[in-house]
């Protein structure tokens, strides 16, 4: 059964304190790994798609990396506006369904 | 572009009532999806439509029906609402389900918060 596990469940950082979020997955044949950001009361907002082990993508203070078993979302010098829940997802079944992790709730304190 | 829009934003139903959640996208995407999000359960796929004229069940389809009205619109119907259907419902769309290198990115709407009493 395809599974996605995110850790930690919650993370509190001081502004400027860099850290990483983890997304580990077990799927038969990776067909993409997706990172989303979700603010309270809003829908998930697309951040990155990674397709191959070794691939990296960056956007402002965020950098996503991918290995054969996990993905990391590195946050460099975060700001309070980076506070959100970060979700990762992988295609499963016939690739039509995304299996989501339960998310990491990030709080960045000023 | 508005992206993916959903109506209504909030809804309260009594057990046994019916309602339809509406979703529209203006990105000319072929594929559309309905998810529900519950605390501790993450997002789970209810139904999807790979292209206009087709619909298929996802992980949790029981108690729901869908209609792909045209390329832009995909509705979700609860025929007889139950308290277990209290959730936040998200519609999403993607250009297509699958490309040569992998699954296409899905873009989400703002959600409908449904409470069934």
Task: Report on this structure.
- Chain A is 0% helix and 58% strand.
- Chain A is built from no helices and eleven strands.
- Chain A is globular, with a radius of gyration of 13 Å.
- The mean pLDDT of chain A is 92.
- In chain B, the strands form three sheets. In chain B, strands 2, 4, 5, 6, 9, 12 and 13 form a seven-stranded mixed β-sheet that branches. In chain B, strands 1-3-8-7 form a four-stranded antiparallel β-sheet, with no helix packed on it. Chain B has a two-stranded antiparallel ribbon with strand order 10-11.
- In chain B, strand 10 (98-99) and strand 11 form a beta hairpin.
- The relative contact order of chain B is 0.33.
- The A-B interface holds A 30-32, 34, 36, 41-46, 49, 51, 87, 89, 91, 95-98, 100-103 and B 4, 31, 40-45, 48, 50, 56, 58-59, 90, 97-98, 101-103, 105-111.
């Amino acid at each position: 059964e395809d599974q996605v596990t995110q850790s930690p469940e919650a993370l509190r950082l001081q502004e400027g304190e860099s850290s990483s979020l983890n997304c580990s997955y077990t799927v038969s044949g990776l067909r993409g790994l997706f990172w989303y950001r979700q603010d309270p009361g809003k829908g998930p907002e697309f951040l990155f798609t990674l397709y191959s082990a070794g691939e990296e993508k960056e956007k402002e203070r965020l950098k996503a990396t991918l290995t054969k078993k996990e993905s990391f979302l590195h946050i460099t010098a975060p700001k309070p506006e980076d506070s959100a829940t970060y979700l990762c997802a992988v295609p499963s079944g016939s690739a039509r369904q995304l299996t989501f992790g339960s998310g990491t709730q990030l709080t960045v304190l000023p | 572009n508005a992206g993916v829009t959903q109506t209504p934003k909030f809804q309260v139903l009594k057990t046994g009532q019916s309602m339809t959640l509406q979703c529209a996208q203006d990105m000319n995407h072929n594929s559309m999806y309905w998810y529900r999000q519950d605390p501790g359960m993450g997002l789970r796929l209810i139904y999807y439509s790979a292209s206009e004229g087709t619909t298929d069940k996802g992980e949790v389809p029981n108690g729901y029906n869908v209609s792909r009205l045209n390329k832009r619109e995909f509705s979700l119907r609860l025929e007889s609402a139950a308290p277990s259907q209290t959730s936040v419902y998200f519609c999403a769309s993607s250009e297509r389900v699958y490309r040569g290198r992998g699954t296409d990115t899905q873009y989400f709407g703002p959600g409908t918060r449904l409470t069934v009493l």
